[in-house]
Amino acid sequence: MSIERIDPELCNGCGICVNSCPMDVIRMDEEGKKAIIQYPEDCMLCGWCVVDCPEEAVYISPEKSSPLIVSWG
Amino acid sequence: MAGMVAAIKAKEKNADVTLVDKGYAGKSGSSPYAFWYAVFNPEWGHDLNAWMNHVNIIGEYVNNREWTEIVFKESYDRYQELVSWGVEFIKDEDGKVRIYRFPGIETESFQVKKRVFGQVIREQAKKTGVRIMDRIMMTDLLKQDGRIVGGMGIAMESADLYVFKAKAVVMCSGCSSFKPDGWPVSSLTGDGEAMAFRAGAEITGKEFNEPKSTSAIHPAPTMGMFLWRRDESSVSTRPDPGPPQVQALKGVNAEGTEVFGLVGSNFIELEFEAHAGRAPILSRTPEVQELIPMVGGAASGMSIHTAEGLWPVDTNGATTLEGLFAAGDSCGTMQVGAVYPGVGYAICGASVTGARAGRGAAKYAMQADKPEIDEKEITRLKKIIYGPMDRKGGFSPRWVTQVLRNTMIPYFIMYVKHEERMKAALTLVEFMRDHLAPKLTAKDAHELRLAIETRSIIHNAEMKLRASIFRKESRGTHYREDYPRRNDPEWLAWVILKQEEGEVKITKRPVPKKWWPDLSKPYEEIYLNRFPGE
User: Fold this and answer.
1) Strands (DSSP E) along B407-513, which ranges?
2) How far is B10 from chain A (nearest CA, A)?
3) CA nearest to B231, candidates A6, A50, A8, A57
4) B262-274 core/surface letters (b: 16 or more CB in 10 A; e: else)
5) CATH number of the domain residue A29 falls in
6) Which of A12, A72, B346, B456 could disulfide-link B194, Cβ–Cβ 3.0 to 4.6 Å?
7) Cis peptide preceding B280, ω within 30 of 0
8) How many Cβ atoms are within 10 Å of B68's Cβ, its own excluded?
9) Which residues constitute the domain of residue A49?
10) Within a domain: residue A71?
């Protein structure tokens, strides 16, 4: 799973994590004004989001599974 | 590092500088993992000949000694400059910068404060007057009458098109990879090298490897090194055993035999163990006695820091294309050779080549004519860039990337090489290039980025296979099962790839004879490492 959760209760909507992510995994939810995990499969576990979040709202795990290969996709 | 240093140095020469970054400048590329910085200073008792010899011998004599020397000699000036900008280095309790020495390695290194230095340099760049544009992915170079006159890119969130006119361009896009899930080089997809190749630049160093291993339990956060919490502790299961380049004891194979490697070789020995049927391999180092299963290929598709990318034609990072410069891991200085021989050469090299390329590009721009761009070329490239979004059907970039990974990452393609297997893989990669890449689809801006990256990693796979097939010998991290010995008279040379009239032209450029080892000595004395079967 790699990036697991951004706690909406803790997220202050500053958007720092969106800029921090080199993989473009996180986006801002324009309605809720909170950071959301938009593309979790592309997280490379660099940890910038965890290090940079001023509210300690981001949780990552060392677990990451590769996608199952199928005939086409 | 390289891009921001280049931007600052160009701005200091009064150039009008725009820095464009796919991520956030200061946090993109390899910056999450960079911290070692080699500093040479004769006043500290360092011996240039000893430092040079270390790289020459471990790099197996295909390092470019002119660049090796330049980087060592200028490392102290760049270090002092970084300090003057506010970059912090780890200090001992007495307030002196901590010096890291490793067994078997002649050179010494400092550590920059992890994760902080990028922002400090970014602030310096802004203070100097550099215009920074974050989260714009450059996709293509613009070429007019044989000269690079700018580039095109897309915004990460909106996919809006950006067209940049420039009197000079400095390429600082890092190394290439197959975008593995493992060691976090996923962001280093070689887009810069791919666009330069399409524009006709010469590329080198593609046959060598960075054979990193990782924990079989948690393969993504390699070696537990890089998944830090805020307090810099690791959330992974394996303690950090230190830089892999210096771990002579690599692990214990399935027969219970300890596996040792040459300093700098990373973990290519483990690929040989796997090939011999002696996997699983369990890690054990002097510092970490607990046995943990390992797997290889964590940095698959990456060549060697500072030893792959655009071939420089001078010591200011000018490339074979007029108006295009390169620095950092994008620039094939061959500062190290066939093996990454120690600790701290990458960001030290990035700061030195960045400074040189920045100054060189500024000097060129001052005398260059105002660039003219043919609108037809912009229209042509725009159609290619947005093709995946315009297409109604085809293949997802994630699936094509996974197909490419499955083809290229297994040990028997790029780590234990054989002509028959590489030609088979090349046939598949050419199919991906000709039949899958042109049918990539993207439903949003993020997938458009993935599609462009997928095209780049297919390019990287093709280049690595072609260079590896071409070099018919073994050397450093390039091991050919069918040619298991070094062949000095033929292959003390650099492999050069170039696109001409739609075809890949491959040649070799000899290492100057004055840099060759003394070939009258026994082979076993010249080369410390033995390959299986030689």
Assistant:
1) 493-500, 503-510
2) 25
3) A50
4) bbbbbbbbbbbbb
5) 3.30.70.20
6) B456
7) yes
8) 27
9) 3-60
10) no
Cα–Cα dist B480/B495, whole Å: 15
**Number of domains within chain A:** 1
Residues of B in contact with A20 (CB under 8 A): 24, 27
Please report the residues numbered 6 through 65 in chain A whose beta carbons come closer than 8 angstroms to any beta carbon of chain B: 19-24, 27, 38-39, 41-42, 44-48, 50-51, 56, 60-64
Mean pLDDT of chain B: 93
**What amino acid occupies position B267?**
F
* Domains located in chain B, CATH noted: 2-206+301-367 (3.50.50.60), 214-224+243-295 (no CATH), 375-515 (1.20.58.100)
Give the single-character DSSP code of B262.
-
What's the token pair of residue B176?
């290439």
With vertex at residue B167, the alpha carbon angle to CA B163 and CA B169, rounded to the nearest 5 degrees, is 70
Q: How far apart are the C-alpha atoms of B363 and B11, rounded to whole Å?
A: 11
Q: What is the pLDDT of residues B397-408, one digit of tens each?
A: 999 999 999 999
For residue B23, the chain A residue with the least C-alpha distance is A22
Measured CA to CA, the distance from residue B519 to residue B398 in angstroms comes to 49
Which residue from B minimizes the CA distance to A69?
B402
Please report the ipTM that was assigned to this predicted complex: 0.96
The DSSP call for residue B376 is H
- With residue B7 as reference, give the H or E element that holds it: helix B2-12
DSSP state of B65: H
Helices (H) and strands (E) counted in chain A, each on its own, are 2, 4
pTM tops 0.90? yes
CA-wise closest residue to A44 among A58, A60, A32? A60
- Cβ separation B230–A56 shorter than 8 A: yes
User: Are B136 and B155 spatial neighbours (Cβ–Cβ below 8 Å)?
Assistant: yes
pLDDT digits (tens, 9 = 90+) for B93-112: 999 999 999 888 889 999 99
Please tell me the predicted confidence (pLDDT) of residue B351: 97
Strand order in the sheet with B292-295: B214-215, B292-295, B281-283, B249-252, B258-260
Taking an 8 Å cut-off on Cβ atoms, the answer to whether B28 and A22 are in contact is yes
Q: How many residues does chain B have?
A: 534
Considering the domain boundaries, does residue A69 fall inside one? no
Nearest residue to B64 via CA among B515, B519, B518: B515
Instruction: Please report whether residue A68 resides in a domain.
Output: no
C-alpha to C-alpha distance for B458 and B437, rounded to whole angstroms? 8
Strands (E), B112-226: 131-133, 136-144, 147-155, 161-165, 169-171, 203-204, 214-215
| Distance from C-alpha of B13 to C-alpha of B2, rounded to nearest angstrom | 17
B256, with CB counted inside 10 A (0-12, 13-18, 19+), is exposed
